[in-house]
């Protein structure tokens, strides 16, 4: 008997594997409207126009110097805080502008109006005083912290997240060509509470790259509340899903929308709000839960970090702790100015939130 074997090619008989990325999602992010795109473009123009509208700044600087020297005996003051604030925006908003370059800009502009321009070392010394105001933590891991002064009276929707700031100016071409390059100095971690409607960074904590996200969550919210902000909801990813965070927000009647892990159990753990939200997650599934809770708005935090690094650069050039803290503060000030001007241009967001100043 001859036994014949046939090799069956089952390659074409395989069922196609569904591509999750191509799968239609129910809760897609709202498409950007034309007026929002126009506001983004116009904000950059108006921000630089406001910074370099020297006629306005000259009057402010002259008035402040006149008031400072009205009862001054001896040598009069030559520099004022308005002058330093102007230089903060010049350095922070225009990438790769160092204190030396800013001092040159000041000498060219202020000198032509009969005002003495500060030396670059004077600019840095004056800005050092800002660091004492932003860093009051006794924890050695925290380099600095800051909360933006409150303006307006609307309720705020907050997203809490973190991102890394590069401490190294690595030259990829040199490393690729010669197999060598500057040693990587590591990262700083920027933990931020972001207004998802205006995009402004309301508060931040600057730490080393080994500090966990969850360790500074309550500190960020406390900073915002102590400044008088009216917060009604906080969004965060599953790195912040801790019972202490739930209890802290629940006691202050603030809604907490945080993503759960896949193995979450629907128990309260001492906070009923946590139990109800976890049960909703388990019962409805992740996609439906996102739709019901509006969790997709947390994505605005990623947009804010992307805008921040695009406008102010993610590389920190300072080498000392003090210089790093000052440099980050300058970048945050300049970024918030851009976002504030954008908010005033757009007035009402696509989500029908009025974000212009009262």
From TrEMBL:
Biased composition (Basic and acidic residues): 30-39
Biased composition (Basic residues): 17-29
The entry's keywords: Membrane, Transmembrane, Transmembrane helix
Signal peptide range: none
Transmembrane segments: 76-93
An annotated Gene Ontology molecular function: transposase activity
Annotated region (Disordered), positions in chain: 13-40
Top-level taxon in the UniProt lineage: Bacteria
GO biological process: DNA transposition
InterPro entries: RNaseH-like_sf, Tn903_transposase, Transposase_11, Transposase_Tn903
Pfam families documented for this protein: DDE_Tnp_1
Domain Transposase IS4-like: 156-337
PANTHER family: ISSOD12 TRANSPOSASE TNPA_ISSOD12 (PTHR34631:SF3), PTHR34631
The name this protein goes by in its record: IS5 family transposase
């Amino acid at each position: 008997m001859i036994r014949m074997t046939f090799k069956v090619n089952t390659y074409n008989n395989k069922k196609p594997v569904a591509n999750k990325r191509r799968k239609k999602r129910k809760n897609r992010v709202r498409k950007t409207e034309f007026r929002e795109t126009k506001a983004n473009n116009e904000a950059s123009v108006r921000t630089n126009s406001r910074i370099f509208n020297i006629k306005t700044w000259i009057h402010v600087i002259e008035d402040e110097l006149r008031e400072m020297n009205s009862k001054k005996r001896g040598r009069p003051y030559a520099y004022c805080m308005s002058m330093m604030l102007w230089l903060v925006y010049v350095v922070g908003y225009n990438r790769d502008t160092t204190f030396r370059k800013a001092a040159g800009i000041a000498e060219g502009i202020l000198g032509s109006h009969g005002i003495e321009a500060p030396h670059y070392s004077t600019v840095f010394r004056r800005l050092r005083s800002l660091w004492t105001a932003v860093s009051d933590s006794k924890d050695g891991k925290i380099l600095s912290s800051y909360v933006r002064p409150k303006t307006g009276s609307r309720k705020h929707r907050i997203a809490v997240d973190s991102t890394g700031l590069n401490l190294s100016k690595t030259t990829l071409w040199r490393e690729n060509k010669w197999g060598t390059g500057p040693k990587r100095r590591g990262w700083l971690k920027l933990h931020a509470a972001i207004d998802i409607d205006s995009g402004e960074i309301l508060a931040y904590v600057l730490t080393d790259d080994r500090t966990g996200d969850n360790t500074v969550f309550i500190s960020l919210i406390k900073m915002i509340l102590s400044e008088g902000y009216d917060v009604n909801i906080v969004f965060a990813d599953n790195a912040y899903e801790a019972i202490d965070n739930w209890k802290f927000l629940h006691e202050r009647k603030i809604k907490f929308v945080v993503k759960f892990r896949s193995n979450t159990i629907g128990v309260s753990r001492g906070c009923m709000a946590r139990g109800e939200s976890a049960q909703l997650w388990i019962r409805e599934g992740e996609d439906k839960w996102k739709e019901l809770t509006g969790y997709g708005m947390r994505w605005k935090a990623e947009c804010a970090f992307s805008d921040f690094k695009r406008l102010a650069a993610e590389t920190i050039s300072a080498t000392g702790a003090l210089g790093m803290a000052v440099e980050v503060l300058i970048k945050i000030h300049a970024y918030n100015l851009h976002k504030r001007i954008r908010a005033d241009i757009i007035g009402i967001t696509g989500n029908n939130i009025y974000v212009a100043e009262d």
